[in-house]
Design a protein that fits this description.
Length: 413
């Protein structure tokens, strides 16, 4: 009776609606994602068997398993971890690396997800979430104090408010979402799409958002996207726009390096000595590399990696790192620290195959997403938090397994 009832329910439409809700909930961090993810994974599992999607899916294609393989390697590193509690928490967050790829490559021919509508919803949700934050910030700070702030201090206090009081979402993760939307806009800027003026407005506001958020990784990524845009204009022989873009990029880069948190990072990189003013990431990366050298092949295990890094913070006298239990702030170092060289290679393969595919099939948005993600992962251990895992795995799976033309799939007919 229950099976007959489920059969008459359009589970595919329910799954589609839940995926859209996940996209709209992304700017709000972990406030709405956990229940949505749980329900989505449950509906997909039921629909997979009821609709017999397994009969129309090519499970032999090895690239389908890039993200799941990475998650499995992390699971294996738990077996030689002493801190199982921390390891299991990490694995709970990595479930999305297994489920999202299967959702998108098993339902590639059934789901009717429009790329432009999906990203328009993402842009709209980003603007609404930031408007809410901005209003809350203005209500929390007296108007007289706001008028006395310089533009730089205003950005700094706004970022601090987002970090401490916001949507339980770190500015770096919020910036990751903003950059994904900007990458999408760059890929469709020359195309005729519905609501193009709305997309353009969202893209402009997204640029302003990045200046407010002051994420160093995001600002570096923004410069890379600017360089990509110049190369694209050169390829299209739009030399007037190229010259204007070059002036804007150079002036913006100079401003970023002199008026944002990047200034401290650049000074630390070129400094030969470590001092109290050395950028925290430089200290953390050095400590992570020293910890990796102790077990470079197998790693310390997904459960013990953070504990071992904290010990290195203690050795070097990095009190802030001990107090805040700071991770490697670089996903590639984090993975190497956790799962050794095999884990690092598996993470690199997650990028290598799709980059090759994107270039070969001229998938511009997929390429731009990978560029954004790779750069962001250099500055943040994105996969230690649920938000980072979901953002990456959702758009990776959507763009690589669902939207890529020529991706081999069994026909439903």
């Amino acid at each position: 009776m229950a099976r007959k009832l489920i059969t008459h329910i359009n589970l595919t439409n329910i799954l589609y609606a839940l995926l859209i809700l996940i996209v709209m909930a992304m700017p709000y961090g972990i406030k709405f994602l956990p229940p949505l993810l749980s329900l989505t994974f449950l509906i997909w599992f039921i629909a997979f068997w009821v609709n017999k999607a397994y009969l129309h899916t090519d499970f032999k294609l090895y690239t389908n398993y890039l993200l799941p393989a990475f998650a499995i390697i992390c699971l294996l590193s738990l077996t030689y971890s002493a801190n199982w509690v921390n390891g299991i928490k990490m694995l709970e967050r990595l479930i999305s690396f297994v489920v999202f790829p299967f959702i998108f490559f098993t339902y590639r021919r059934r789901l009717k997800m429009d790329e432009n509508q999906l990203f328009l919803l993402l842009g709209f949700s980003l603007m609404v979430s930031f408007a809410v934050l901005f209003i809350q910030f203005n209500l929390a700070v007296e108007t007289t104090k706001l008028s006395e702030l310089s533009l730089g201090d205003f950005f700094r206090y706004t970022r601090y408010y987002i970090l401490i009081h916001s949507l339980a979402l770190h500015p770096s993760y919020y910036s990751f979402l903003v950059l994904i939307f900007i990458a999408y806009y760059l890929s469709v800027a020359e195309k005729k799409i519905a609501f193009k003026s709305v997309h353009s407005a969202f893209a402009f506001l997204s640029l302003l958002l990045l200046l407010v958020l002051q994420s160093r990784g995001a600002l570096v990524t923004l410069i890379f996207l600017g360089i990509y845009l110049l190369m694209k204009l050169f390829y299209l022989k739009k030399y007037y726009l190229l010259s204007v873009g070059l002036i804007i990029l150079l002036s913006s880069t100079v401003w970023i390096l002199n008026n944002t948190r990047m200034k401290e990072t650049v000074r630390s990189v070129f400094s030969s000595e470590q001092s109290e003013t050395t950028d925290s990431r430089i200290i953390i990366w050095n400590n992570a590399l020293h910890t990796i050298k102790e077990k470079p092949i197998a790693g310390h295990g997904i459960g013990d990696a953070l504990d071992e890094l904290i010990k290195e913070h203690e050795k070097t006298g990095y009190a802030s790192g001990v107090e805040k239990r700071l991770d490697a702030h670089n996903q590639f170092l984090e993975t190497w620290l956790q799962s050794g060289i095999i884990g690092l290679i598996s993470l690199l393969l997650v990028f290598i195959f799709p980059v090759y595919h994107a270039i070969k099939k001229k998938q511009e948005l997929l390429f731009l997403f990978l560029l954004v993600a790779f750069t962001q992962l250099l500055f943040e251990s994105m996969f230690v938090r649920l938000a980072g895992v979901v953002y990456f795995s959702f758009f990776y799976s959507f763009l690589y397994y669902y939207k890529s033309p020529g991706y081999r799939q069994v026909n439903l007919d």
